Amino acid sequence: MVYITSIYILVSALLHKNIFHSVLYMWGVIQTILISVILIVVAQYSFQYIKDTLTPRKTRDLVGFNRQKFEEIINELQEAKRTPVIDMESELLEFAHEQLHDNNL
User: Fold this and answer.
1) One domain for residues 53 and 63
2) What integer best gives the mean pLDDT of the chain?
3) Residues 37 and 78 placed together within one structural domain of the fold
4) CA 16 to CA 5: how far, in whole Å?
5) Do residues 28 and 22 make contact, with C-beta atoms less than 8 angstroms apart?
6) 11 in Cβ contact with 20 (< 8 Å)
7) Looking at the structure, do residues 46 and 90 belong to the same domain, yes or no?
8) Are 3 and 49 within one domain?
9) What mean pLDDT is predicted for residues 65-78?
10) How many domains does one find in the chain?
11) Are residues 75 and 105 in the same domain?
12) Residue 14 class from Cβ within 10 Å (0-12 exposed, 13-18 middle, 19+ buried)?
């Protein structure tokens, strides 16, 4: 019974001084802040989950890729050494003679 009367006295004092309304207002502000933070966190984690599960991961093999390119360049250089060097001037002269010969017929 003592607790009920002390609570009644406390509530009546709070209502009398409008402190009770201030506390209710502050509780509403705190509640709004908490709900906003929870919604932001849920949205962030949802976006992260969707991004991780629905998009394929792009992995690049930098060492293997560079090694493959290097081997291709080496192979091209070795092929260039094996093939005979064509003299461009003699090839052009031969082409010009063919064209002149074809025009004379």
Assistant:
1) no
2) 80
3) no
4) 16
5) no
6) yes
7) no
8) yes
9) 87
10) 2
11) yes
12) middle
pLDDT one-digit tens code per residue, 9-22: 666 666 666 666 67
What is the residue range of 86's domain? 59-105
Query: What are the tokens at 86?
Result: 């064509």
Does residue 75 sit in helix, strand or coil? Answer: helix
Domain shared by 54 and 64, yes or no = no
Confidence grade of residue 89 (pLDDT, cut at 50, 70, 90) = confident
Beta carbons of 14 and 23 less than 8 angstroms apart: yes
Q: Which two tokens mark 89?
A: 């001037």
Asked if 44 contacts 53 with a C-beta cutoff of 8 angstroms, the reply is no
- Is the model more confident about 16 or about 26? 26
Q: Tell me: do 3 and 17 sit in the same domain.
A: yes
Amino acid 1: pLDDT: 54
What is the pLDDT averaged over residues 23-44? Answer: 89
